[in-house]
Write a structure and sequence with these properties.
alpha+beta, five-stranded mixed sheet, 3 helices
Length: 161
């Protein structure tokens, strides 16, 4: 009985290999797979901002996080650096923002409502902030990187669909 099923199993395996090779070369599969992967990716805008209590002003480069910065007890916001990162769930990304500030972000999960991010901020090699947050799309998580020239260095991390 075993000898009779063995040729049938070989035929089945050969058919599956042929079918998968054919589907793998299909334009339909090529079109669907990248879309599925793209749906799981996220763009992150990470900035380094000098926040002070000077004359009210916000750099034009910070317009997408202006309402999140407005919640802080500062009136002037100067962008000192920034990077745009793109990644997928589980991927660790790093941005060197200057002034000794390095931000590491790992995307924990994505949903229709927002993103869950693990964020670690290092300044001069030492971890100054580390947290996991869930933020709605288009709303930044603003974290402190410490004192700087009469104000604070803050890091808004914005997840964009």
């Amino acid at each position: 009985m075993f000898r009779r099923t063995l040729p049938a199993a070989r035929t089945l395996v050969a058919a599956l290999v042929l079918a998968s090779a054919t589907l793998g070369a299909s334009p339909w599969v090529d079109a669907v797979i990248p879309r599925a992967q793209a749906a799981e990716s996220v763009r992150l805008e990470v900035s380094l901002v000098h926040a002070t209590r000077g004359a009210a002003s916000v750099d034009k480069g910070l317009s997408n996080v202006q309402r999140d910065l407005a919640a802080l007890p500062f009136t002037a916001f100067t962008r000192r650096g920034g990077e745009t990162l793109k990644g997928t769930v589980g991927e660790a990304m790093t941005a060197d923002l200057g002034d000794g500030v390095i931000v590491a972000v790992t995307v924990q999960s994505l949903s229709a409502d927002g993103a869950t991010l693990a964020i670690e901020i290092k300044r001069l090699g030492k971890t100054v902030q580390s947290t996991t947050v869930t933020r709605p799309w288009g709303r930044a998580q603003v974290m402190s990187a410490g004192s700087f020239e009469g104000g604070m260095l803050v890091v808004p991390v914005l997840a964009i669909k």
